[in-house]
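Q: Got a minute? One more chain.
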Amino acid sequence: MSIAIEQVRCKGCGRCIVACPKGLIEYSHELNDRGYEYVIFKGTPEDCSGCSLCAVSCPDQGIEVWNKKGKQTFENTAGLTERMTHYCPGCTHGVVHRLTAEVLEELGVVGRSVGIAPVGCSVLAYEYFNFDMFEAAHGRAPAVATGAKRARPEMIVFAYQGDGDLASIGGNEILHAANRGEKITVIFINNAIYGMTGGQMAPTTMPGQKTTTSPFGRDIEQTGYPMRVCELLASLATPAYIARGAVHDAKHTLKTKKLIKKAFELQRDSTCFSFVEVLSVCPTNWGLSPEESVSWLADTMIPYYPLGVFKEPQPEGQADAKA
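A: Always. Here it is, folded:
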């Protein structure tokens, strides 16, 4: 087994170090050309099991894996460009980008896919996905996606939105797109904070969580409880696929890929509106290290935002009977 780490892509978040079950990756104690302390593989080919968990965890498409026969078992997806992302070290936007692109490639629909980039940390997503993208006004990605899908129903259309974008200014848009049953897919990144604009409190910010606009912690007496968007959308009568995953570690990342794949399969088959919420970390605005942010998400967010599938399309007869 062997792995290749592209040093210049590494931002030194250490996610691969934590993911490696054999402890074969470590910091180099040197800086790459971008000023980050990159990681290196310290073992021998015989030491590596080829599990690929390091590559699965990498937010920056910086690791590839080969097996003992020289066959590549984990490679970067053709659904993404070679451009390096602007995201902060440890940010898992890059992981969700890769999962989305991998699924579209595996389904053979990259050539007819269209994404909607929002206002937020992922505003430059059009630089990273290797297919056509629209840029939407803040919160309006579902409306733009609706127009694209209705004009070209054979296309695979998805919106990629953060929590400040979707759950706040875009709350009206997502509710009505889901309620109409638009045959689009929405990937919703929930990191419990506004990222790009300065770390303000978002609709998904946890009780007591400190942000730039809640320096003493979110006061539920003043602002209410965090919005559970999956549960809210699942209460709508229109058939839909609603699920929530997380990408804070390799195990949950692999499970989340299955949710995303199911969502796009349903769109490919013209079945229903599909929505996948992904719990993601924001080390910079949380004021935590990448490793600490993983623990915070697991200990604080998941108990409040439970993972799983909240709604699936019902067979037509069952749906009529339930109605």
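A: DSSP finds twelve helices and twelve strands in the chain.
Q: Perfect, thanks.
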